[in-house]
Design a protein that fits this description.
- This is Cohesin subunit SA.
- Residues 31-45 have a biased composition (Basic and acidic residues).
- By secondary structure, the protein is mainly α.
- A three-stranded antiparallel β-sheet has the order 1-2-3.
- Helix 23 (481-489) runs antiparallel to helix 24.
Amino acid sequence: MIVVLKYREADSQLSSDADLEDFDGRNAKTEKAMVGKKMGGDKSKGGGAGRVPGVGWVNGHHKENGTETMTLFEMVKMGKSATQAVVDDWIEAYKHDKESALLGLINFFIQCSGCKGICAVSGEMFRHMQNSDIIRKMTEEFDEDSGDYPLTLSGPQWKKFRINFCDFIAVLVRQCQYSIIYDEYMMDTVISLLTGLSDSQVRAFRHTSTLAAMKLMTALVNVALNLSINMDNTQRQYEAERNKVIAKRANDRLELLLQKRKELQENQDEIENMMNAIFKAVFVHRYRDAIAEIRAICIEEIGVWMKLYSDAFLNDSYLKYVGWTMHDKQGEVRLKCLTALQGLFYNRELGSRLELFTSRFKDRIVSMTLDKEYDVAVQAIKLLTLQYGSVLTAEDCESVYHLVYSAHRPIAVSAGEFLFKKLFSHRGPNEEGLPRRGRQSLNGSLIKTTIFFFLESELHEHGAYLVDSLWDCASELLKDWETMISLLLDEPMPGEEALNDRQETALVEIMLCAIRQACECHPPVGRGTGKRVLTAKEKKMQLDDRTRITEIFAIALPLLLAKYCVDIDKVTNLLQIPKFFDLDIYTTGRLEKHLDALLRQIWEVVYKHTENEVLEACSTTYHYLCNEEFTIFNRVDIARSQLLDELLDKFNRLLEDFLQEVTVAESHTSELLLGTFSDLLLGLIYPSSFSFPQIVIHAMQCTHYIILWHLAKVSDGSSVKGDTVTLRKQMKAFCLMCQHFISSINTAVKEQAFTILCDLLLIFSHQIISSGREQLECLIYSPDSSLQAELLNFILDLVFIDQDDDDNSTGLEDEASKIEALHKRRNLLAAYCKLIVYNVVEINTGADIFKQYTKYYNDYGDIIKETMSKTRQIDKIQYAKTLILSLQKLFNEMLSEFGFTLDRSSSAFCGIKELARRFSLTFGLDQLKTREAVAMLHKDGIEFAFKVHSPQGDGGPPLNLPFLDILCEFSSKLIRQDKKTVHMYLERFMTFQMALQREDCWLPLISYRNSLQGGGDDDTMSVISGISSRGSTVRSKKSKPTSASKRRLPEGECELLSTRPRLQSVSTPLMMHSPHLTSTVLRDPKKMRQEQSCTTAFIMPTEQHQQQPLHQQQAAIDYKYKKNSFVLLLMRYLNAHVY
C-alpha cells in the first residue's frame, strides 16, 4: 500500500468569497446534507428488484449474457462506441440494478483519475463504508510515483479521452434529466463522491473530480435553462387559458397547467439545490486551487454558465470570481478569464449588463494589454475592442493604439483592429452618399485619418508596421491606390484643406508599404518568423494585386516623379515601386509611352540629386527594368547606356577642370585620362586630400569597388593573363594609400580609409585561397607591424572615447545623432575585431581591446565578448596570454597614475579585479579543456608580479606584487593537481624572508598562496569525464598529510622547482625541459587506475607558444637552468615547517 505524500496545497492569492449569494434565496437542501450522505444509499432504492438475468454492471465491468466486457473507462477511452449508446446502456443497467450500475459509475471516475488494478471501489465497500472512508482508502492506495494520469498524458488518444470524458457527463445528465436525476439517489451519490475527491490531497483526484464536477454543473445549467423555458411557456399558457371567458375556459386544462407548473417548479428547485451544492462545495474552493489547470477549468466553466443562463449567473455574485482571477499569476488562468468575458461581450444584450463590472475591472483589462504572455495580451485587446464604446477613456485607447507597432504580430493585428473600429468604423451623416473612389470619397477621409495617426503617434517611424497591423481588417482601404494618387496629384476642392509636405511624405511611405504588403504577402522584417507558404487563393489575389498595381502606377508614377522630383524622401520611396511591377503589362497593355516617360523622369532624378539613397534607388530600378526576359529590355538598356555615356563625358570634363585648378602637371593629367579608371581614381585621391575630402571619400569607395570587381573576375577564371599581377599592384598601392589617410586630419576621411582597409585586409588574407582557390595565393596581403599598430591606435583614439569627448558632438546634438555616432563607432570596432578573429592581425593586439570590456560594456560589450569567444576557439593558450597581457597593461597604467603607493581598495584596482573576474568566467566550466591555457595565464602573471624590484630596496615587496591579488580571480579555474604545480612555480620566485612576511603590503602574496593551497582534496572539478564521485571520495579518504620532514620531491616536479632565483635578485628565471609531470610519478603508469590517469598534473606551458603563428604546430622549447639541490631541498624543508 502506497501512502500519499501529505501536503497542503497553498491557497491562491485571490480574495475571499464570503459575499457569495444564494439562488434567489431558495436552498431546500444544504450543501452539507448532500455531501455528508452515504454513497450506498437505501437498500430499498438500490435493491435488485426487476433485475434482468445476464445484463448488468459488476464492479464497474459491463456484463452481457454472463460475459464480462469493457469497463466504462475503457469504453470512453477507446471511443469506439458512440457516447449516446454507452450512456443508454448504463441507464438501462441502472433501471434494472441501481447499486451495480452506480458502482460502475463511481469506479469510472476513480479510474479516470489514474487508479489501476486493485485500487477500485468494491461492492462491499460501497454498501458498508462512508464516503470519507472510501476516499481515504483510495488515497492511500493511489500510486503517485509516476505523477501522470489520463488528463495530463500527452498524445492524440488522451486528448480524445478528455473530450469523450466531458461528453459522457453531458450526455449522461441530458439523458437522465426527466426522471433519474430527481430520484435523490444517483445525483446525490455522484455529487457527494466528486465533492470528496475534489478536496483530496492527491492532485489526480482533485483535477479529475473538479473537471467532472464543473462539466456536471454545466449540464445541470442546461437542464435548469430548459426548465425555466418550460415554466415560462406553461405560465403563458395558463394566463391565456385563464383570460378566456368562463364559457370557453377549460378548468381541467387549468388544473393540468397548474400541476405541471408546480412539478416544473419543484424540479427547478431540485436542480438549483444541486447546482448550489456543487458551486459551494467545489467551485468556491477549487477556483483558487494551487494548480493552475484546475483554476482554469473553474473559470472557463463559470463563463459558460453566465452565457447560458444569464438570468441566474450573470450578476456580481459570480462575476467577482472572474474579476479576482484576472490577477492570477499564471497566464493560462488569466487567458480563461478574458475568453469568458469575450463570450459575454459578444452579446450586446449581455454586455449592457456588465457596466458595473467593467467600471471596476476596466483598468486591469487595459493593463493586461501589456501582459508578459502574448496570448493574454492579444485576448485583452480583443476584449477591449468589444467594449470600446462603453467606458474607455482617451488615455485607455492611446495605450492600445501604440501596440500597432509591436514586434509580435498577433498583438499588432489585434491593436490594428481596435484602431480601425475606433477611428474608421463610425460614419457621420455628411459622409453618406460619397463616391466610392477618389479624393472626395469616404476612403479619402479615412486615408487622411491614417496619415494623421501615423504622424501623431511619434512612437515609431516605420509605416510598414502600421500597414501590416491594419492589413487584415483594412486591406480594402490600403489597396485604394487610386484615392492615394488623387490625394497626391489632384488639386484640393474649394474649402478642402490640402495635405502639407510632411503629410504627403507620410502618404507616399504608406502607399509604398501597402504595395509591398500586397505583392510580398508577408510581414515586415522583425515581425514574423519568415515567409509562409501561400494558399491558392492567396496566390491568385497576389497576382491580381500585382497586375492592378502595374496598370495604375505605370501611368501615375511618371507624374508623381515629375511633381516630387526634387524631394529626396518622396523620390526614394517612389523609385522603389517599379520593382513590384509585372513588366509584361508594359507590352500587353500598350504602355510603352509611359515606360519612356518613366525612364526620362529617372534621368532627371539622376541629374538633380547627389544623395546616395536616391542614386541607389535609381540604380536598383534600372537593374530591375533591364531584365532580358522581358521585351522592354532593349528600350531600357539603350536609355541606361545613354545615361552612363553622358555621365562619363561630364565626369571627364569636370575632372579636367578640377585637375587644372589643383595645378596638376599636364603630362600627369593626360596619363590619368588615358589610363584605366582605377588608375585615374588612384591619381585623383592625392591632389584633393586636403581641400576636397568628399571627393577623396567617393574616390576611395569607387576604387574599393573596382578592386572587388577585378577580384571577382580573376576568381571566376574569366580574366586574361597579367590581370592578377595588375590587381596585386593596384591593391597594394590602394592599401598604402588608405594607410596614409588613416592619419588624415579629416575624421570622415580617416573613418572611410580605416573601414576600406579592414575590408581589404580581410578579403586578401590567407582566407582567399580557401575553397580550392590556390591560384590566388599571390594576392595574399598581410599587414606588417607598423600597419597593425596604426590600426590599433586608430581604434583606441576614435572608438574608446566618452560621449562628451567625441569631436563630432556638440552641445545642441540631439539623442538621435548620439546614437548614430555610437553606431558608427561600433562598426569601426567590429571591423577591427574581425581582423583579430580571422587571424589577420596578431591575437595579442586584442589586449588593448579586451581591457576596455568593463569600462565600455554598455557600448561595445557584445562585440568584445564575441571577439573573446572566437579568439578562445582559435587558440586557448594565446587567448589566455592576451587576457593576462590586457590586465598587465591596466595595472601598469594604474601604477603610472597613482605611483608606488598603491591602494588596493581604490576604484581603479577594484575595476581591474572585476575585469579579471569576468575574464575567468569566459573559460567555462570544463576545466580540463582550458587546463593548459589557465596554467599559462598563472605562469605569466607570476612572472609579471616578480618582474620589477622593490622601489624600497632589499626586503621590500616587488613593485608588481599587488598583481597577485588580481591573479587570484583565476585560481578557481585550476584543477587540484595544477594548483600544486603553480604553487611550486610560485615558490621559485619567493625568498625565505618573503615567506615569513605578514605586513599588509604582502597580503596579495598571502592571498594568492592561500587560493592555490585552499580546497585541497575537497576541491572538485566541474566537468571531468571518467572520474566518479565514489572514486574521488575513496582517494580523499586514503590521502594523508605527508610529514614535512619526510616530504620527498618527485622527480617530475623538478621542472617547476629546479631553478631558483637568487635571494638578492627577483628576475624571472628560465625553465628547463623535463619529462611529463604526473601526480603518480612514483607509481608505474601501467598500474594506475583509469580514473587516476585522467587527473595528471599539468606541465607548465612553454614560452615559445606566443611567438608561433596560429596555424602552425606549436613547438616546445628547452629551458636552460642551473640546479642547486642543496638550496632547493633546504627551502622545501623550511617552507614545510613554517606552514
